[in-house]
Amino acid sequence: MAQKKEVFHLNRDIEHSIGFSQAVRAGNLLFVSGTVSVNETFEAIETDNIAGQYRVIYDKLKKTLEAYGLAFGDVVKENIFTEDLPAFFDSGNAIRMEYYDGLDYYPAATAVESSRIAFEGNLVEIELVAVFPH
């Protein structure tokens, strides 16, 4: 018997037209799709400001986690894809750390430089895996 899955959308119509869900819960795990800095019509925002993109993305990730009653303390894995890895270490990581502030651990994480993020104008894409408390 297939396991029941729950999905969450930030913008269902656009996500369906592209073929993904913002988040999928399977058992006690929440898988959050790569999240980029876009507005409601999926146009890139903060295109000239990588720090601004990090803030937009982490706010969207926070909203996604909160939709399931979770927080950054429930994140166990984080993958960060960026077109500018030095900018991640210069400003992006400091913004990231604000969202994990007060925790006694950080999730397992990977940061990778990529030549192109999925949508033009985006410089960063971040995906998460979170675990539901028992």
What is the strand tally?
6
Looking at the structure, the CATH topology is 60s Ribosomal Protein L30, Chain: A
- Give the biggest sheet: 6 strands, mixed
Helical segment tally?
3
Write down the overall mean pLDDT: 94
Indicate the proportion of strand residues: 25-35%
Shape: globular
**Oligomeric state of the chains in view:** single chain
Number of domains: 1
CATH architecture title: 2-Layer Sandwich
Query: Which homologous superfamily in CATH is the superfamily?
Result: RutC-like
Helix content: 25-40%
- Provide the structure class: alpha+beta
What Rg, in angstroms, do the CA atoms define? 15 Å
* SSE arrangement, N to C: EHEEHEHEE
- How do the strands of the widest beta sheet line up side by side? 1-2-3-6-4-5
> Segments where pLDDT lies below 50 for 5+ residues?
none
